[in-house]
Each structure stands twice: as C-alpha cells, then as structure tokens.
C-alpha cells in the first residue's frame, strides 16, 4: 500500500463499504457521457461487482481504485482498463466527484501515483487516456503530466443530440 500513497492522498482497493459511494457515482447521469453508461445500476449489481473487485488485473483486465484524502474519505475513483500485457499498455480514467475537490492537485497526484505503479510495478510501456475535446481541465491535467496528444477520434461520442470528438493522449515509458 505504501507505493500508492502520495503527499495528500492515497489510492486503495474498493471495499464493501464503498457501495453507497459507488451507487451515487455510477447513477449520476452527469458522468454517463464519459463512462459509456446508458442506464442506472442497481445496488444488487454494484454489490456483486464489489464482491469481485478483488480479482487480479491480469484476470479481469481492469483495476479500479478509490482516491482518498489522508483522513480516509473517498473523493474520487481512478481506473485502469483495457489492460494489455502482451502489448504492454493500459487505459486510464479518473473522476474527482465533488466540484470543491477539483483543481486542488488531487487529480495530478492520483495520476502520478498510478502512472508510476503502471510503469514500475506492472512493467508496462505506455498509458493512454481518452478525453472529450471540450474537457479543458483534463486536457490540462494530462498535458502537464507529460501525456502527448497523438490523435483525435472524430464524432466519437454521441451525447445530447450531437457528436463530440475524443482526443487520445499517451505517455510512453522510455
């Protein structure tokens, strides 16, 4: 666990006690656009998900961690997805739940911690992120941390009656 601790936050595995937090987050239509969700999740489905959250990234090809402040309160989630050990790459996503917690360095620290984990523990060559073109805070975050814009997917996300472009960023561990 010490590897996943920063100056102001730490990352930890999901626990059964996170059910209410996950229920609120996953059922927030405001984030469905970035999560690809199209319908609400029941507590039962999320409880079953939590019961399997302990599975190894090599088995389920993903890892979801809670972002916690030093007092232990959950303030967001950070994910690894589409884990590809053959090609040594993985996707990353992050959400800081409360507006008041954003733009205070939490996302920067969480991405730094998890990127270091990806490169030093998992031994991967690259991490990539997908960011909607209008998401200035995320574009700033990943650019500042050395992720390079490598492409743009045109009309990639259909939301609220229109298409949005998605930008692909990657960070390569050279």
UniProtKB/TrEMBL annotation:
GO terms for molecular function: acyltransferase activity, transferring groups other than amino-acyl groups. PROSITE patterns: GNAT. SUPFAM superfamilies: Acyl-CoA N-acyltransferases (Nat). It comes from the Bacteria. Keywords: Transferase. Pfam families: Acetyltransf_3. Residues 9-174 form the N-acetyltransferase domain. Signal peptide: none annotated. The keyword Nucleotidyltransferase does not apply. This is N-acetyltransferase.
